[in-house]
């Protein structure tokens, strides 16, 4: 390696030196307006130039040949591949495939998309994802969920398509008992293997609490994301929070803004318009003791994705997305289209941010359990409220 490198450096120095002697193709500047040299001198100059060019060309060929056989270590490293936005790919494929897919999920870092026929499988491969052929179409499973909405809507139940098992997963919390439990079980039994049931500890509830962070009256929630429309600034949080009151303050009592929009039940989002944009308003999320995370975009979650949550009660937590398009039946009403996760949360975390990297994903709605022994938490997709009101993160 040392001998070859020394040889290359020597040849490069020689080439550089000879190249300096090589004339330009046009006449030199000092020839302008000057008489031509004698014929003998012209012949000598031409011969010299030919010799120099020949030597330079030969040397260049040697250098080129030597470099061509040099080890790969001399080559520039390949540029790293851009990260794949699995949420965007999954959403695009869902739109293209329609009833030919019953959802998607991440497995070993790859996006797996369920399909019902070969044409759909080819479309998935062309998008760089992995197709998985399943028995039940998305249309069939959506009909099952519509039937559950009709026959099994009682507080403490929730359901969504589980893409991995190609079933509808029907979840019941500990409050579903007696006649209500019998009703739900009978509704599920009508659909055979298309429905799988499970019980979870605790009860599904909104995570609202009296206290600090963003407040209205005696209730506390968490700020989700700072957003804007042109030069007007807002923040988004949970709709069951903005339903409580109009004027919002921070933990010191400073007025932040007034309610601009609120949607709960059905959805669970609210928008508060800043009364005056505070100097400390930033498009970042607090990581509670671990700095902040700048949020630069909003996107869609993917089943299997690792996600993070920030909230005023339990701080910075992580977990995994387990379902999309989730329906949840709270005592106060039903919400649909939610993101289901294994991230824990507690009262006061409502409205807090769900994100992955620098991408905003959702707003904390509610769930069961706590951050001592875990649980299930549901999130309102943030893209819905951003699109509805023409807002963007920053």
Commentary on this structure:
By secondary structure, this protein is an alpha+beta fold. It folds into four domains: 1-20 and 44-69; 86-133, no CATH class; 138-199, 2-Layer Sandwich (GMP Synthetase, Chain A, domain 3), CATH 3.30.300; 205-393, Trypsin-like serine proteases (Thrombin, subunit H, Beta Barrel). Helix content is 28%, strand content 34%. It has helices at residues 2-21, 39-68, 86-97, 118-126, 138-151, 178-189, 239-242, 382-389; strands at 104-107, 110-115, 130-133, 157-162, 167-172, 195-199, 205-206, 214-216, 219-221, 225-229, 232-237, 247-249, 255-263, 269-274, 284-286, 292-294, 297-298, 306-311, 315-330, 333-341, 353-356, 359-370, 374-381, 392-393. The strands form five sheets. It has a six-stranded antiparallel beta barrel with strand order 18-19-20-23-22-21. Strands 12-13-14-11-10-24 form a six-stranded antiparallel beta sheet. The longest helix is centred in the first third of the chain and has 30 residues, at 39-68. The model is unreliable at 1-5 and 10-77 (pLDDT under 50).
């Amino acid at each position: 390696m040392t001998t070859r490198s020394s040889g290359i450096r020597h040849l490069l120095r020689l080439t550089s030196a000879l190249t300096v002697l090589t004339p330009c193709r046009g006449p030199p500047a000092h020839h302008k307006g000057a008489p031509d040299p004698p014929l003998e001198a012209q012949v000598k100059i031409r011969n010299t130039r030919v010799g120099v060019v020949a030597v330079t060309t030969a040397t260049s060929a040697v250098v080129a040949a030597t470099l061509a056989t040099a080890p790969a270590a001399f080559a520039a490293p390949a540029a790293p591949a851009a990260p794949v936005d699995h949420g965007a790919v999954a959403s695009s494929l869902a739109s293209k495939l329609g009833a030919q897919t019953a959802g998607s999920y991440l497995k070993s870092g790859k996006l797996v998309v369920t399909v019902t026929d070969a044409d759909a499988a080819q479309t998935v491969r062309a998008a760089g994802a992995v197709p998985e052929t399943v028995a039940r179409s998305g249309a069939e499973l959506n009909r099952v969920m519509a039937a559950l909405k009709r026959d099994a809507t009682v507080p403490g139940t929730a359901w969504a398509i589980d893409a991995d098992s190609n079933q509808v997963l029907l979840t019941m919390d500990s409050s579903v008992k007696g006649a209500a439990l019998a009703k739900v079980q009978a509704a599920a039994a009508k659909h055979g293997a298309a429905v799988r049931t499970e019980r979870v500890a605790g009860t599904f509830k909104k995570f609202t609490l009296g206290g600090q962070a963003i407040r209205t009256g005696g209730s506390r929630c968490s700020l989700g994301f700072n957003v804007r429309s042109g030069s007007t600034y807002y923040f988004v949080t949970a709709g069951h929070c903005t339903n409580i009151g109009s004027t919002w303050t921070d933990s010191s009592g400073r007025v932040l803004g007034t309610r601009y929009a609120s949607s709960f039940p059905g959805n669970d989002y609210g928008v508060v318009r800043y009364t005056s944009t505070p100097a400390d308003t930033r498009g970042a999320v607090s990581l509670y003791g671990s700095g902040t995370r700048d949020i630069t975009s909003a996107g869609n979650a993917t089943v299997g994705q690792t996600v993070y949550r920030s909230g005023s009660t339990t701080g910075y937590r992580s977990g995994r997305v387990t379902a999309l398009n989730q329906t949840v039946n709270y005592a106060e009403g039903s919400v649909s289209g939610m993101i289901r996760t294994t991230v824990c949360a507690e009262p006061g975390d409502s409205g807090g941010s769900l994100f992955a990297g620098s991408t905003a994903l959702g707003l904390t709605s509610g769930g069961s359990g706590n951050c001592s022994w875990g649980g299930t938490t549901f999130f309102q997709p943030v893209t819905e409220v951003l699109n509805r009101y023409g807002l963007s993160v920053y």
